[in-house]
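Tokens for chain A. Residues wanted.
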């Protein structure tokens, strides 16, 4: 809640406190990793993801998504795309391909994968599949760059702009 309230530094403190209280809790480390990524610290997030993976090897879809998100933040777009594709392949129960509600349609890996494809170019099939997914689940009015980016609590404007630029390069309309 701290992160979504625009208090990323407080969110990091709270998440780190949770990790300190229960160092063997993979979920706390995964939450810390996501907060670090949104706070512009993807390199630090990779360490938390590695420990979470070790503690909970059965949740690979989640960790592939988080690592893909961190790699996107590091501008390692090819690695990000591979990890996000893996997250979607392994996590069809987390991100159903044929969602029926907006809650089910909340597919963060899909949006990030589209942005990564935008930077990579030459993946027209993947781009079209992700664009079709966005339009089919959110509707054209919600699948705009500004709307997609605004729904994420990036602390650093450069991170939000990197994400927006990837979506633009993939052909998503601005407004």
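Reply:
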């Amino acid at each position: 809640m701290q992160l979504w309230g625009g208090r990323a530094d407080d969110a990091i403190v709270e998440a780190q406190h949770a990790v300190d209280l229960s160092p063997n809790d993979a979920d706390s480390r995964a939450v810390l990793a996501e907060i670090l990524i949104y706070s512009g610290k993807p390199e630090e997030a990779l360490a938390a993801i590695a420990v979470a993976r070790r503690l909970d090897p059965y949740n690979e879809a989640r960790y592939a998504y988080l690592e893909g998100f961190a790699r996107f933040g590091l501008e390692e777009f090819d690695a990000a795309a591979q990890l996000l594709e893996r997250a979607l392949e392994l996590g069809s129960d987390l991100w159903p391909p044929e969602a029926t509600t907006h809650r089910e349609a909340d597919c963060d890996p899909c949006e990030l994968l589209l942005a990564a494809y935008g930077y990579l170019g030459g993946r027209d099939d993947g781009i079209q599949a992700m664009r079709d997914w966005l339009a089919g689940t959110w509707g054209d009015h919600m699948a705009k760059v500004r709307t997609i980016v605004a729904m994420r609590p990036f602390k650093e404007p450069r991170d939000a702009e990197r994400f927006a630029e990837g979506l633009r390069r993939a052909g998503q309309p601005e407004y």
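The chain has one domain: 8-169. The two ends are 28 Å apart (CA to CA).
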